[in-house]
Amino acid sequence: MRIKIQNLKNKNTSVNNSQQPEKITKKTFFALLDLTFSDPRWFEKNVQKFFDDVKKQRFADDQAVLIKLENIGKKFSNGEGGTQVLFNDVNVVVKRGDVISLIGANGAGKSTLLDIVVGYQKPSSGAVSYSFKYDYSPTEKMGVSYQKNNLLSSLTVWDYIIFSHRLYKSRTSLRDLVVFVYAFGIEKFCKMKVQKLSGGQQQRLNAMLSLFHDPEIILLDELCNNLDMTIKTKIVKFIKQYITVKNITGIIISHDLFEIGNLSNRVLVIKNQRIKIDETTKNAIKKYKGLDKLVAASM
Known about the structure:
By secondary structure, this protein is of the alpha/beta class.
């Protein structure tokens, strides 16, 4: 088993802003948030300003290879002195601008493969290569949101927002911070402790936090699971515009047809320990006569 990490010099994905980041406090945050409640169209007006400002930045528009998985295999002890192979000989090239939906039955190895990409697990065989710029670890440039999160239940939503904002030295303005909160539908829960949130609300918080440090690659695990259609549509629309404008790369684990169809431009199906399908989303829909039939074929 070997893991190969390359730190190659690529063009910066955005302009560095030499200005000092805006100081955001609990008082200023909730003062603005309270004001927004009196204007039903606040989010609609300000989300457009948010994306207008994003468009003024420069982002890499090439299709450079960012990640390569070469002959990746993963096996576990079966507890009886033998081993169980989860998958073998997985070969995937991820280019800038790819938004990949990783599809497969429960237990096929989707989450494990995501862990290997992030670096949380090591493959049993094969090599992972990263070809984007980072300082200490490739994970710095990844925004990761898992279905099962490890949020500390004693903290409030606000605690997590300001902690993440300061940890990553984010230059997100106060207005944009509130735009994020609205985009993920947690504006009414910011004073609540995480333990009081539903599973879907915690999932939305986790997904929002994954974007705070301006990642080069986002990795989302069942983003739309247990969400009603209204909030699902709002979140998917925001993320779609966000990754399109910034040319962000994404890997998404999902069984949700709406999420797959609206976010991804490429689908990978993992089945019987191999990558069985690797197609553009458009070609896969045409070949299998619909996303529902494609997902059914992956089971």
